[in-house]
Amino acid sequence: MTAPLAASTVASTAASTAAGHARTALSVNVNKVALVRNTRHLGIPSVTRAALLCLQAGAQGITIHPRPDERHIRASDVAELAALMQQWPAAEFNIEGNPTQNLMDFIRQTRPHQATFVPDSEDQFTSDHGWTFPQDAERLRPLIAECKQLGVRVSLFMDPIPEQMAAAKAVGADRVELYTEPYAAAWGTPEHAEQLRIYAAAAQAALSAGLQVNAGHDLNRDNLPAFVAQVPGLAEVSIGHALIADALELGYAETVRAYQAAIDAGMAARV
Prior knowledge:
Strands 1-2-3-4-5-6-7-8 form an 8-stranded parallel beta barrel, surrounded by 8 helices. The radius of gyration is 17 Å and the shape is globular. The chain has 12 helices and 8 strands. Residues 1-20 have low confidence and may be disordered. By secondary structure, the chain is of the alpha/beta class. Strand 2, helix 4 (75-86) and strand 3 form a beta-alpha-beta unit. Helix content is 48%, strand content 15%.
């Protein structure tokens, strides 16, 4: 039996909805839990246990990025997490990666709620750029179509370039995930306000094109409230590195609640 959402999470969600805004969802990326586990052969820390604790604390989704070299998430993790998510029908399972590598097999096998296409090379250290149009259009179009035939929503990892959003919609995407490292790098500097303006403009262009808007990369408890407050229509944030680092000190449950509070602070500051 699944645990109900914490009362505070339910209350804050209701308050946000009542205020006229759909609440920005938190999807926890558990890749870094797998990275630590893979340094030994003991099976700890458990990726599935970490996901369960985050869901019990009120996270609205779980994200994984299974790379071909299995440096963190393994094929067995994908299957185990898919089984776990069957027990949490209200939560979203998001699998991200490059659809020209190993991603599509996982999509076909597990049919997650969302597939996030990321243009990573196989040896890339971490995601550091989005898709580009028209260059990537033809190879993405049939893969997006296949996902949609499987009932899987598709989000494209994109740089915050307003002119690219209509092209993402034209190839069949349902959402874009705005790559937020430039925003995070500018946090606390004179460039912060300009970066917020850039992301707000990109999000508005996406909304105008008929896309929903996700965001992720280096978001944390400090920089998240301003982003949620200023970027329109933000449906979901996917957070891994900073959240798991915080969980080493605070524990999964308290950390998820802290990130939910950061989202709520941003929601409350929306005009």
